[in-house]
Amino acid sequence: MNNILILGAGRSSTALITYVLARAEENNWRVIVADADPQLAARKVGNHPNGQGVWLDVMKVNDRRQLISRADLVVSLLPAHLHLEVVYDCIDLKKHFITASYVSKDLFKVVNEFRNNELIFMGELGLDPGIDHMSAMKTIHEIKGKGGKITAFRSNAGGLVALDCVGDNPWRYKFTWNPRNVVLAGQGTAQYLENGKFKYIPYHRLFKEYRIIEVPGFDEPFEVYANREALLYREAYGLADIPDIYRGTIRYRGFCDAWNALVKIGLTDATYPIMDSDKITYHELMEAYLAKEGSPGASVKERIAGLVEEREFSPVMKKLDWLGLFSKKKIGLSKATPAFILENLLLEKWKLKPKDRDLIIMQHEFDYELAGKKMRRFSTLVLEGKDASDTAMARLVGLPLGIFTKLVMQGKMKVKGVHIPVQKEVYEPVLEELKSYGVLFHEREEEL
In the annotation, is 128 catalytic? Predict the structure, then answer.
């Protein structure tokens, strides 16, 4: 096998493209990077003799199939909703497929097609999901191998920004991955198990009912809000009978209360357009969400504070004010949804400066019983990026994809069918190589 096709040249692609190209000459690989922005694809490839950046509108079937037909393996960094058509092309054209995205129910339906055609489909091979699966399975197998019984598993991860790069941003958050996904995060219902009972947190309560965790090496605790998919991994992890399982997203203190205010107002809703959104100001938009008249003479900011049950000058209201939500500036977006208006406002406010360093934190907790003792093991990963171009997020999404791509191209992977990376033959070599990039989990234990 010699030909690799990478679909998408966005912010998470850099580490993957760099990794694969660095090994292309010695392995005689031809690497094609396809994107709707051909100049971006060309920049990511640079002048590498084994690489080429090309234009692709993935919705143009003939162009897409022509590129896929020339490849041996397809790595997709496209938005998740575009994967299905690519996957069907890979089945029809007999190509392996790898992605960092979640494996949906629709994608799992093609298990037999990939297995029967001796093809590899590996999904959820990025950071979260991806490195979380692999690092968790390594510890789960270690504990079970010693005869231990796991009674609880909690996994939390977050993409943040180093505190000394926060500046005057009271949210202490900046975009390190898809802004739209950040704005829409948590929609649906979070689900997990606690003391053998199913627990559900609907979206309108999610950012109010957060947990607090400690992470070694940090002076202050963090907030964690629940993810919706924790229950999906009980069987995949071999933990079908476990009474406690939880997955969450990590944020600095103060974030969740302020985001909860945006949810209460209605600014994360992507289901309807705001009339005349190109003509009105942010101040007028805020006023439009105030159905009840306030006290005589009360400002829009005061009335919004009442709506979200905050004092006018509380830390939450200061965060909303800092975003510019009460300014007389025009929104300038035609027929935009509230979520799109918020996303575009945040794009500037939460943009990484050139020298900003992002920060990835992942921490697993395993409760288990062994030889009559109840134990808790913590496994913690902390990694900083170098700057806004070389982010920890891009590395931790792209490097697992790159390493697995190499293993498939070299014929060292035998996991045919549709999978996520929970098999020992997958996680062992990937995690081992990631160590050379500073991706190290530090473990500690305590007796309960």
Answer: yes
